[in-house]
Design a protein that fits this description.
Radius of gyration: 17 Å
Strand order of the largest sheet: 4-2-5-8-7-6
Largest sheet: 6 strands, mixed
Order of helices and strands: HHEEEHHEHHEEEEH
Strand content: 15-25%
Helix content: 25-40%
Oligomer: single chain
Number of helices: 7
Length: 237
């Protein structure tokens, strides 16, 4: 994964139309080290770039989710790790859908308004979708960032907004949740705009439960998942 990301970054460094986007690519890559399947996956939009963090000085920043939460090193990860029943926590892993290092999401979305930026954005998303499909193969996914919901194909229309292009169906018993929405992956949207249209004709994630919820740091407590909800979702895997 690291070499694939480095190759992708090298292909686009200095090719963005704006100085701001070129400077973001110069920060390098941050990615989760995932080497096998995990029944539970939490996904974010992209890694942040925190001023004062020693990691900002490094071009390549890999991390291991389980090692981070066991060391209680980062409140971003421990905030949702503690929601899972203790018996399931060792089965959880984490993946950002994009590896662009930027704290402000509105800046991340500027990539899709740049022709070369859109190419990189889609290629990076495709890499992480294939990692989920071919390696992780989760049965429960928490999409922990409202801004990334559309990247799953949740807001797709006949005209576009396909991205990873999953089709979803409702799940009985999870109506009107204050923290978001629980759906089940039913298949893939048949559309040439899917980022992995050539590689994925069918999905390995059919039947996987997906909780679409919010960024924990910017949401009121009542709009976040509860341990009781996560326990019920784990039981349904």
């Amino acid at each position: 994964m690291e070499q694939a990301l480095l190759n992708l970054w090298e292909a686009y460094r200095g090719r963005m139309a704006s100085k701001e986007l070129n400077e973001i690519l110069e920060r390098g890559i941050c990615y989760s080290e995932i080497s096998g399947s995990h029944r539970i996956l939490v996904t974010g939009m992209n890694p942040s770039f925190r001023k004062g963090d020693p990691a900002c000085e490094k071009y390549e920043v890999p991390f291991n989710y389980q090692a981070v939460v066991k060391g209680r090193e980062d409140r971003y990860f421990t905030a949702f790790d503690r929601l899972f029943p203790e018996a399931y926590r060792a089965e959880v892993d984490y993946l950002d859908l994009l590896n662009i290092r930027e704290t402000r999401q509105r800046t991340v979305w500027k990539f899709i308004r740049d022709p070369k930026g859109l190419e990189l954005f889609a290629a990076n998303l495709r890499m992480n979708q294939l990692l989920m499909e071919q390696v992780v193969r989760p049965r429960l996914i928490m999409v922990k960032n409202h801004g990334s919901w559309g990247l799953w194909g949740k807001d797709a229309t006949a005209e576009g907004n396909i991205w990873m292009g999953y089709r979803f169906e409702p799940v009985e018993g999870f109506d009107a949740l204050p923290c978001g929405e629980v759906l089940r992956i039913a298949g893939l949207i048949d559309h040439p705009d899917r980022v992995a249209c050539r590689e994925l004709k069918e999905t390995n994630l059919k039947g996987t439960l997906v909780l679409f919820t919010n960024h924990f740091q910017y949401s009121a407590k009542e709009k976040l998942p509860t341990p009781e909800l996560m326990a019920e979702l784990c039981r349904r895997i």
